[in-house]
What does this fold into?
Amino acid sequence: MELILLGPPGAGKGTQSKFLESRYGVAQISTGDMLRAEVKAGSPIGLEAKSIMDAGGLVSDELIIRMIGERISRPDCAKGFILDGFPRTVPQAEALDRLLHETAVDLDAVIELKVDEAVLVERISGRFTCAKCGAGYHDTFKQPKQAGVCDVCGGTEFIRRPDDKAETVHARLEAYNAQTAPILPYYKAKGRLYSVDGMAEMDEVQAQIEAVLRQIG
Ligand code: AP5
Ligand code: ZN
It folds into this structure.
């Protein structure tokens, strides 16, 4: 299974791709998570990416394409992968086509999560994750079952992303509209684009994605 989950910041790409990873045993590849790990490690990639991410812009295509080329060639991708947050520009989509062509892999579907802008801002501003295992939560929509304790690993420390501040969220939405939305027609023309209602409850979005997967066989 080779899938792309596409949608604006806060649309639920991370939430749904983590579910698909555990359900189907395919690798979830989030370029945002990979970049945050580089920033944390203080690597040259992290140093290059940090100020751009903090401002809500997009990191260079060249850096991202290099990172993805290396990532999808790893053994855990042999059973397939879900791309979360990549591609984000037309040059990235074209580079992915070349990478897949080289490895004779076919993209099954590009699933777009459609969510209104006001809802995105609400989702992002309430988001937090477990510092230990990365499980995602929300102040309103998904609290841990026991207050202050991660459902998955029992961790008690939670973090909020520096780019989830209101002013940065607007810059991220602008970057999505200007640079990422143009890849929707690119995949539509290839007959690979499926849209689901990302405004629905998490379980319902999950069910809609599974319906697309059944449809494409
Ligand atoms: P990245 O980490 O990819 O962030 P993003 O695209 O802005 O997406 P988010 O992680 O904010 O949202 P999501 O869609 O995953 O939503 P989530 O599931 O968490 O990128 C960060 C930065 O890295 C970029 O700004 C850029 O600088 C750089 N970057 C990354 N990739 C790049 C690339 N390819 N090229 C260039 N630069 C790149 O859900 C959000 C919240 O809502 C959660 O709290 C969740 O619990 C809740 N929620 C989810 N679904 C629902 C639902 N159905 N109902 C109610 N609540 C829900
Ligand atoms: Zn945890």
